[in-house]
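Onboarding guide, step 5: your first structure request.
Type a short instruction followed by the sequence, for example:

Predict the 3D structure of this protein.
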Amino acid sequence: MATSVKADAGGSSSSAPPSAGSSRRPDPSSWRSRLFRWDMKGSPYAFITPFFLCFAAFGLFPLIYTGWLSLHQVQLGAESDAKWVGFGNYSWLIDSEFFWRALTNTFTIGVISTVPQLLMALGLAHLLNSHLRGRAFFRIAVLAPYATSIAAATLVFAQLFNTDYGMINSLLDVFGLGPIRWDSDKWWAQIAISTIVTWRWTGYNALIYLAAMQAVPNDLYEAASLDGASRWRQFTSVTIPSIRPTILFTIIVSTIGATQLFGEPMLYGGSVGIGGGSGGQYQTLSLLMYQTGWTNNSLGRASAIAWVMLLILLLIGAIQGLAARLNAKKLGG
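The system replies with structure tokens like these:
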């Protein structure tokens, strides 16, 4: 009995369960280990594969195919009879007064709609960021125009800007101002279309600015207030520099949207909307592309217009990116 007790006492170390450090590791050459390594290395690629497949099918292939069409003379419905013309379609664009008129209209409408839109969005965001009663309601209200469909908003504004019985001309008549030809005059028509764009997108950009303003540390405002800075001085010296990357982002997005403007001018013009009015006074590049490809049945020239629009957007993005980089270096220096 003593011997057994002694054996139990002396052999307790040998009969104890092995520690975690002395546990047997799996064989690296086993199929489970190889499966684990494949899972760790291949899972990220498996997760992003659906995106690249969709991008290749609906983004990359149409882009390459449109580039191929832009180098051919192709009629709508007769793509198999494409005739190689090289850069002939681009030469036609350079010599076409319709293209330069559409390019000018796109630029002017873009400036008229983008600049007031972003300035008003900054003011609204600053107001919503202050201690205002019912802020939640107003934040939802400013987003309501963005939720409205383009067709509904454009049709309503087309009635407001109607030359004969529109409310805008009726109000102008009260002050003794003559009726404005909102449909046929170039600049007034572009201002009317820009008003639709500004009304629809101001609230959206205001909420983006509001989110950026709420991320600005309160310590900066407190320090500026202690230095005697007014609210306007705090806005220009603290808020604007702090949200400069967000402002640059909205400028880029608004520029892209202005370059691709299509629905508002087409619906505003009604029966002559595709042509940008009776004299093409507000025809944009997107409208010209649609008219060239689907009305005139020239897919090659329409594809060339699409590629020119892409190159313009890339050029604008490169210029804005360079400006942002130079500004960052100036601040850092």
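Each response can be followed by summary notes, for example: The radius of gyration is 32 Å.
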